[in-house]
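Researcher: Batch entry, complex prediction.
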Amino acid sequence: MDIVKLTIDDKPVVVERGTTLLEAAKSIGINIPTLCYMKLEDLNFENKPGGCRVCVVEVEGRRNLAPACKTECSEGMVVHSHTVRVINARRTVMELILSDHPAECLTCAKSGNCDLQSMAQKLGIRELHYKGEQSRYKGDKSPAIIREMDKCIMCRRCETACNDVQTVGVLSAINRGFESVVAPAFEMDLDKSSCTYCGQCVAVCPTAALTERDSTWKVVEAIVNPQKTVIVQTAPAVRAALGEAFGMEPGTLVTGKMVAALKKLGFDYVFDTDFAADLTIMEEGAEILDRLSRHLNGDKEVKLPILTSCCPGWVKFFEHHFPEMIDIPSTAKSPQQMFGAIAKSYFAQQLKKKREDLVVVSVMPCLAKKYECTREEFQVNGDPDVNLSISTRELANLIRNANLDFGKLTDEDFDNPLGESTGASVIFGTTGGVIEAAVRSAYEMFTEKKLEKVDFMELRGMDGIRKASVDFDGLPINIGIAHGLGNARKLLEDIKAGKSEFHAIEIMACPGGCIGGGGQPYHHGDVEILKKRQKAIYAEDAGKPIRKSHENPYIQKLYKEFLGKPLSDKSHELLHTHYFDRKSKIEINQE
Amino acid sequence: MASVKLPESKIQELKEVCQKYDNKGSELINVLHGAQELFGYLPAEVQEIIADELNVSVAHVYGVVTFYSFFSMLPKGRNPISICMGTACYVRGAEKVLDEFKRILNVKVGETTGDGKFSLSCLRCVGACGLAPVVTIGERVYGRVSADDVKKILSEYA
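Model: C-alpha cells for the complex:
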C-alpha cells in the first residue's frame, strides 16, 4: 500500500495515497467543518464540488488556503485546520453565502434541521458585512416536492443524488455566474419532468431549497371535521425512525408510542400499512408463483423476472425510462394503495359508511407516496383511495404541534381489523425485505411444506445489488435485489439485453429501501443511522408472533369474507393496477 | 416549452452529427456546435434528441447550452444584427448604439423580434476598429454608427 505521512494540527497521521485532508483529519478525530461536501459511505454518494470553501485549511508552504475536501494528502505536509487565517476565511465565505440567502429562519420549514443555519451558528456569525443582490427564482410546487431555489446555496448535493446515485437525470446546474441555479431541463416544473419524486434530493439538501409538500394542516382539518371518519395507516419504516425526531437514539423502535400519539391526535382508526403489506404478499406472491409455474410448464410468453411494484418512485422511473418493459413488474398495487382500496370498500361496508365519508391518511417515509395517491387510476369517481400522505417528518411536526411528550407516551396497539400484521410485512421497510417476505409465503404455497427457517440472511444487507438463490425444495429460485435507482437501472439493462438470470427482483428507489426514504428524519450524511434503522426493522420482525403474511388471521378473514382468493376478480379490481408509458415524445414532422 | 416540429431529414442529419462524434457524452459541446450550425439555434427538441443519442440527461444538455453564450435557443432573425463591443467600439459609444437598437426593436441581447425580422447580439471585435463603433447586419457592415443612425439603418430593412 502506498502511504504518505503528514501532520495535522501537530498530530502525525499516516494515510493511503489519494486520501483527502478532510478524511485524514477525520481519522485522527479532527472534524473539519464542511457545507457542500457530503459522502454516504456504501451508497455510492459522494458530493465534493469544492464549491463552498468552508472546509479550507492552511498548508505550510502553500500560498493559498486549501479546500480539505478536495486536497489530497502528500508526504510531509504540515496542515493547520483552525488558525486565525483559516477561521477568518471560513467566516468570510459563510457571510458571502448568507448575503445571498433569504433570512427567513424563523418561519423556514428547515429551521433546526438546516446545515447552513448550523454552520452559521458553529462559525459564530453574528453580523453580515456584505450586502448585495439576492438571487430570485420562480417557485415550483409538484405534488411531492417543493423547489424554492432562492434558498439554494449551489452545493450540488441534489445533482449528485439525482444523477450519480439515482440516474434519473432531472436536475442540472443551468445558466452561469450569479444566474446559475439547479433546475430541470428548460426550467420546466418538476411535475412536467421525469422526476420520480424519490425525494433523495430533499434528503440531502442542506437548506429548504428542496422540501416536501406539507399536508399536515390538511390532516388536522380532516380530523376536526365531524362529517369525516379519519383513518390513518403507517408504513413499516416510520416506526424505526420517528423517534429520532424526538431526540431518541437512531434505531429506536417507537411503534407503540407512534400508535398512542396518532390516537391522541384524534384519528378515528389507527391502522397499519403493514396489514396491506401482508396483502401485497398474498397477491404478489400468487403472481410470482403463477408466472413461475407457467414458465416451468414451458410457456414461452410468460415474462420473467417479475419485478416488485410497491415503490412508487421505482414505478415512475420505469414508466419514464423503460416503457418497453411495463409488462414485467408485478401488477400488485403498493401497500399504501391496497390499504386505501380495502379501507374504502371492505372497511367502509363494515362501518356502513360511504367511501366519500372516509378520509384515509398515510404516514410514509416517502415523498413519492404523496404523488402516488394523486394518480388517477387510484381514484373512484374523483375520490382518491388515499386522500393525504404525510412524511415521517410531518407526523413528528403534528405531534410537536399537539404538545405531546412523545417519549413519555404509553405504548398502545393498532386497531383491528386493518392493524394486524406479521413480521414479513414489517421488513418491507428495508431493502431486501419485500422479497424475503414474498419468499416466506411463496415457499410454503409452492412446496406445500412448512418453512422452518424464516430468516433469509442471504437477502439482507446494504450492498447496492445483491443476488441469492433460494432453494424451493430442489428448485433454485434466483433472486435479485437492487436499492437506489442507479442500481435498479443496471439490473434493467441486463433484462433488456436478455442477460438476466433472475426469477424475481425486488427494487426500491431509495438507498437502503424505505428506511432511507425522502420523507424520513434527516440523516445529515450519517449512513450509520440508516443501518441502525435497518437493524430495528429486523428486530421488530423477529419479535412478531406471526412472521409469514399468509398466516395473518385478519388477512385470511378478508379473503374469506370479501376477496375470495388471491388474483380473484375482486382482487384484480381492487388490488391490481397497470402502468403507463411516460417517455417524452418528440414531435416529428413527416415530409 | 415551445413546440417546434423538426423535419425528419434534419433529424437524420442531426443524428449523423452525433455519430460523427461516436455518440459520446464527452463530445457534447462539439455536437452542440454541429447542431447549431445545422438549425441556426438549439430548440428544446434538438436538445432532447442529442440527449437521447449521447445517452446523457436532457437537463445536462440544457445546462451546457445555457452556460455558453455562444449557444442560443432562439432562432436568429432574418436580419441578424451584431454590435461590436470590442474595446475600440466600446470606448466610442457602442453601448449607446446597442441601447438604441434595444429600445427601437424592444428586444434584449440574444432575442429575436416577434416578427422574426431582426435578432440582436453582441460580439467582440470584427477587425474594423478604424470604423468604430461597428454594427453588422447579415453580411453588411456599418461603420462609425451613432445612436442617431440606428433608426435610419433599420429603415433600410423595411
